[in-house]
Amino acid sequence: VRLVESGGGLVQPGGSLRLSCAASGFTFSCYIMSWYRQAPGKGRVLIADITSTGGRTNYADSVKGRFTISRDNAKNTMYLQMSSLKPEDTDIYYCSVPARNYWGQGTQVTVSS
């Protein structure tokens, strides 16, 4: 099983980034997928999840209206489109299969001028 996040980096406040999570080794289309983030010294926080078909999504209040989670089951890939980024969005972002406790290695997002 592999979950590989990509797309992180340094962006100015108000900017945008799109994270990707490429999955392999399991039946991606069968599972709810989630994005979490973690600040140094703190626990991982759920910020968005998406049902197996992509038909329903949920967001933490802190990102609602700014982030969009999506998935492409044909490509075994999940995405997180992040817009109107704020310095407080600076964290390591992880993708996860909660039902199986699968985690990626994380990708760093830094929002700074």
Notes on the structure:
With 113 residues, the protein is mostly beta strands. It is 0% helix and 51% strand. It is built from no helices and eleven strands. The strands form two sheets. Strands 2, 4, 5, 6, 9, 10 and 11 form a seven-stranded mixed β-sheet that branches. The protein has a four-stranded antiparallel β-sheet with strand order 1-3-8-7, with no helix packed on it. The chain is globular, with a radius of gyration of 13 Å.
Characteristic terms for this protein:
single chain; 113 residues; mainly beta; 7-stranded mixed β-sheet; 4-stranded antiparallel β-sheet; 51% strand
Assess the beta-strand content as a share of residues: over 45%
Helix content: under 10%
* Helix-and-strand structural type: mainly beta
Shape field: globular
The total count of strands amounts to: 11
Rg is 13 Å
Q: How is the biggest beta sheet arranged?
A: 7 strands, mixed
Give the SSE layout.
Blueprint: E1 2-6, E2 9-11, E3 17-24, E4 33-38, E5 44-50, E6 57-59, E7 67-72, E8 77-82, E9 91-97, E10 102-103, E11 107-111
Parallel strand pairs: 2-11
Antiparallel strand pairs: 1-3, 3-8, 4-5, 4-9, 5-6, 7-8, 9-10, 9-11
What's the short version?
Helix content is 0%, strand content 51%. By secondary structure, it is mainly beta.
